[in-house]
Amino acid sequence: MKKKTILAISVSAVIALSGCSSSSSTTAETSDIQSAFTSQEELSRYNAYVDMNNLMLDEIDSAAYTYFYSALYQEEFELYEEDAYWCTYVDESSIELMDTVYDIANSMETKEDIDNAYIEVYPVMKELCETINEVYDYIESEGYIEDNYAQAAEFHTTIYNDFNEYFDLSNTFIDLVSVMTEEQMAEDMAYFESEGYEVLYSMNEVMLTAKEIQVAIYNQDVYDENILELDITDIQPLYEQYAAEVETCINNLDDDAKVANDGFSTDNPYIDEFKDAVEENLEALEEIIERVQSQTPIEDYNEDDGTIWKFDSSLSTMIDSYNYAIEY
């Protein structure tokens, strides 16, 4: 089955922008950070596309890939193992977000490529998610036992066809979001540095470097299944850079004066959550390098240590906790 590279930068698209309106110490700081946006409509659109990017790379991809862990990725419905039929579901609030973002994209008088890309992926994405949810209910009610998988085959046809279309269309949208956020991030980082926001700068710096490492891994078409094929030649210097940045970031986060200067309350619970995720992410990278150097295969795919899954998961937690910290 085709796999999608995880472009973890929803990152600080994560919005050191709208988020700072609640956490910045002064209104002036907020308006300066938001100055790149000419209107609230533009800022809302940016945030919405970031949220949708995150949703696609997390919950929607997870639901789709989980389904294909039990059903073979092929046109005809067939289970990998008899009676091992299962899937997860997409939360109703996530489907509501899809609708909200569609309304925003559709409302743009002058539509850009990113607006058109979302408008195009929206119907097939929504049908895919709603069908997966129908499968979830069907499994929970044991309907497949009553009809001997007759409806399962119908569901599978829709999911298989929708997923193939969604895969390409969603990647187009995600690529455009990545370009949009990277451009904005360059402006944000320059602003954080010029204003002396050391905590915000270092938090975003580690997320950006972690994303760079993640992309470097996936650009080699390496996953946990073939992790020993990873060429760490280009990863090693990134690791050394990342380790130094993590140390700086943790030191900044441990400095209450710096934390307060950047507009965070010193009792913000997500600061500690971010720190834990950063440390786990660095640990995961070190374990990957060690596994590859020793050529130790993954024998139990339920284990976390030394896996790309652990690196991805902790990076996702970093991004989420940063978002929450900004909004707290």
How would you concisely characterize the structure shown here?
The chain has 328 residues and is an all-alpha fold.
Descriptive account of the structure:
The protein is mainly alpha-helical. Helix content is 70%, strand content 0%. The chain contains 12 helices and no strands. It has helices at 20-23, 27-33, 40-70, 92-107, 113-140, 143-146, 150-195, 198-218, 235-253, 256-261, 269-294, 308-327. Helix 4 packs antiparallel against helix 5 and helix 8 (198-218) packs antiparallel against helix 9 (235-253). It is globular, with a radius of gyration of 21 Å. Residues 1-35 have low confidence and may be disordered.
Structural Rg: 21 Å
Can you tell me the overall shape?
Answer: globular
Number of strands: 0
The H/E string reads HHHHHHHHHHHH
Q: What does the main sheet amount to?
A: none
Q: How widely separated are the two ends?
A: 39 Å
* Number of helical stretches of at least 4 residues: 12
What helical percentage do the residues reach?
55-70%
Mean pLDDT: 86
Unreliable stretches (pLDDT < 50, length at least 5) are 1-35
Structural class estimated from helices and strands:
mainly alpha
Strand content of the residues, in percent?
Answer: under 5%
Comma- or semicolon-separated keywords:
single chain; 328 residues; mainly alpha; disordered N terminus
Reconstruct the topology from this structure.
Layout lengths: L19 H4 L3 H7 L6 H31 L21 H16 L5 H28 L2 H4 L3 H46 L2 H21 L16 H19 L2 H6 L7 H26 L13 H20 L1
Helix pairs in contact: 3-4, 3-7, 4-5, 5-7, 8-9, 8-12, 9-11, 11-12
